[in-house]
Structure formats: C-alpha cells, structure tokens
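Input chain follows. Return structure tokens only.
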Amino acid sequence: HRWLRRNVSNGVPSDGRRARWFRLAEVAAVSVLTSIVLFYLPTVSWACKEYVIRGEGVDNFRDWKTEAYYEEAERKRFFCPEGEINEMATVMFGSRLDAIKEILTDPSAFQNRTLVSIGFVFFVLTLITFGTAIPSGIFTPITLVGAALG
C-alpha cells in the first residue's frame, strides 16, 4: 500500500489543469498502445492458415452468397498469401461479437497459439484500459478472453 502510493501514484496530479492533461496523455498513450498491438499482432508468420472454399467441386455456380464469401475471405487475408486467411486479423479487425460466436461455435477452427495469444493480449489490454479515464465496457472483452482461453 505505502510502496504503491510512494512509487507509482506520487507524481500523478489529483485535481486541476495538470490532472486533465495527465488524463488526456494517459488516454492517448493507451489508445496508441492498443492500436499498435492490435495492428501488428496479426503480422506474425504463423497466423496464416489455408482455407477451404465451401462447396468447391460440387457446383461452379457463383451466386451472391458465394461472392460475399470470397470478398470476406479476401478481406481476412491481411498479409497472407493467396488461398490463406489470417486468423488473428479475423478476430482483431472484425466484430468482437462475431469473433466470440466463431470461437465458441468451432474452437478447433483456430490454432491453439492463436487463441492463447488473443486471450492474453485482450486480457492485458482490458486491464490497462479499464483503469484509465477511457469510458469503455468490460463485458465483451472479458467474454472474448473467456472464449479464447476457455
């Protein structure tokens, strides 16, 4: 308790103009850190995974649903070679709700190291963000952490 006050929170202004600037700097630093981590984490080489086109070999007819699937698969490539998708980018850049549904529906569709990485990163970022002046929710990130690590 005393160590924390003496070494960590000693230089943090509690009120006034300096406190507002400190909170603004804190929010900016957390925002930049989160952006950097969420953008560069999917660039790891093992995040790319070959994907199978649904219905391939059965019918060559491409309707609007098939076109939408191709567009979605192309969007999920994120620095991967042709014919592969980036599992991390799927979670990082997509909807968190869709990521939770996808993980809970079929966790075997993801590599274990992808799920562990996503769970750990979102857990740490949630802890950092929840303690700042940024108004943010905690339910969805913690649910994603539980889905990834569970």
